[in-house]
Design goal:
2 copies of one chain form a homodimer.
Chain A: E1 2-5, E2 8-11, E3 16-18, H1 22-26, E4 29-37, E5 40-41, H2 44-57, H3 64-68, H4 70-80, E6 87-95, E7 113-120, H5 125-130, E8 132-138, H6 153-164, E9 169-174, E10 177-181, E11 185-190, E12 193-196, H7 207-219, E13 223-225, E14 238-243, E15 247-254, E16 257-258, H8 266-284
């Protein structure tokens, strides 16, 4: 496996960083996860914009032009790993770099650490077709979830709990409301209307969420960006989660109880099909 | 500078870890900061116990015997860096180790990454004598602050804001209450009684805080472990912060306004003196 690290393409075992990197010491970094199909990045622009916004939020000196230039790096990493013919997951991370430990930003010139890797993505068709199980889990994360930082322990513990419960995703809730999944955004159909959390610092502005919102408009489905009360989740008519490797995946059980009749609902199926059409048409068009 | 990394003592420039270390990718690790005086660790037991508790909380397979064995490693790192005659700050971190990226805990054997470094500590006597400035800052951190994890962006941004305001520390508040400092615990005197936040997951159980509580009992001072209302901070009779490199440091201004007459108060001075006596007597006794 070939990775990109600080300007070089190196084998995995040579992809080494300083133990004093602020990514390791403080979780002081921003990341992205991008889907590639046929060697091209899907929705690169929104991913790059979100990364630029997060880096600006943390005031890491790695600007828009530098982030935008990573699209070509991603394509190179895909190519060098022989992943250009199928689908891949690109992981990108920029940390503030290595410096002697002190909480505040280091004085002087510190070069950010830039990392890109790619792995083969095998889409789990069965999960998309039949739906997945989810659990509910208290949201323990810090308050700027709109920045895609590597302060991810709240997500790690939630996903681990899901996995131990035999579920695919953990639906995070706080103050009686559903925020989002540990690595996805959450939609539910309540009283015939699609509902999802509005874009605030309480959730990540998902790129797949954005595409789904566009598809909802195209399909003329009713939608409200208004947080789902946790106590209405069990009686939702449909639930799905979405994300860059999850696409649109139906949720058919929550905490072990079936959602409606336990099968993917009609709006979910329509959005899943529309999403996949867009994903693969985008690839074919390039 | 010689550092300890995964069983070896290496020069700083050779202290390298995998870019896939979960410490870098998820902030998936626990750390400690320990004071050494004359080559010996001050209050090693409580530091080790807190690290053991945090590692158990995150279920990182690095147990009590392994943590306790790091005391000798710390002494070695101090010795190898020629810091045994004065005072030093020891930094210890254990992450879950390197594994291909997935939120949940990696399957199979993954060896935790273990890192120890030491730096010379020059105690800022003027700050201890004359007191420091502090700002108030909203607490943005995740919900398990009792585990000393490296998910530290809330602390980083708070300390940076303090520094830009010309202050030493940021006092973090939430829901109208004072939690603690970005890298310290906070005490205030209100109506003649010492007050500090009780030990809950909202704050770090500080080792210096523990020593200060013991000294308060020895000196017969009145104390209540009950969170300080933020709106009573400005009118507090005394404020101090404490921590492993901060010892007991008076706070003489908050957000630019003087605390009482702007000079360290009598309980603060008494506790500072008692703390330093204990710190240096402990060293002399060994």
């Amino acid at each position: 496996m070939i990775m990109y690290l600080n300007g070089q393409y190196v084998p995995r075992e040579q992809a080494l960083i300083s133990v004093e990197d602020r990514g390791f010491i403080f979780g002081d970094g921003i990341y992205e996860g991008v889907r590639s199909v046929g060697g091209k990045m899907f929705e690169w622009g929104p991913h790059a914009d979100r990364m630029i916004n997060g880096l600006a939020g943390l005031r890491i000196p790695f600007g828009a032009a530098q982030v935008n230039a990573l699209e070509a790096v991603c394509e190179q990493v895909v190519e060098k790993n022989g992943l250009a013919d199928g689908e891949a997951f690109l992981y990108l991370q920029v940390s503030r770099g290595a410096a002697p430990r002190a909480h505040g930003f280091p004085a002087g010139d510190v070069t950010p650490t830039v990392f890109v890797s790619a792995s083969k993505l095998v889409v789990p068709r069965k999960l998309r077709d039949e739906g997945c199980a989810a659990i509910t889990f208290a949201d323990m994360r810090w308050k700027r979830r709109d920045w895609k930082t590597v302060n991810l322990l709240g997500n790690v513990l939630a996903r681990q709990a899901a996995s131990e419960a035999g579920a695919y995703e953990a639906i995070l809730h706080e103050d009686g409301l559903v925020n989002e999944g540990a690595a996805t955004n959450v939609f539910a159909v309540i009283d015939g209307v699609l509902r999802t959390h509005p874009l605030t610092p309480r959730i990540l502005p998902g790129v797949t969420r954005k595409v789904v919102m566009e598809l909802i408009a195209e399909l003329g489905l009713p939608v409200r960006e208004d947080a789902i009360p946790l106590d209405q989740l069990a009686s939702a008519e449909e639930i799905f989660v979405c994300g860059s490797t999850t696409d649109v995946t139906p949720v058919v059980t929550v905490d072990g109880a079936p959602v409606a009749n336990g099968k993917p609902g009609p709006m979910t199926v329509a959005l899943r099909e529309a999403f996949e059409a867009r994903l693969y048409q985008a690839a074919a068009a390039r």
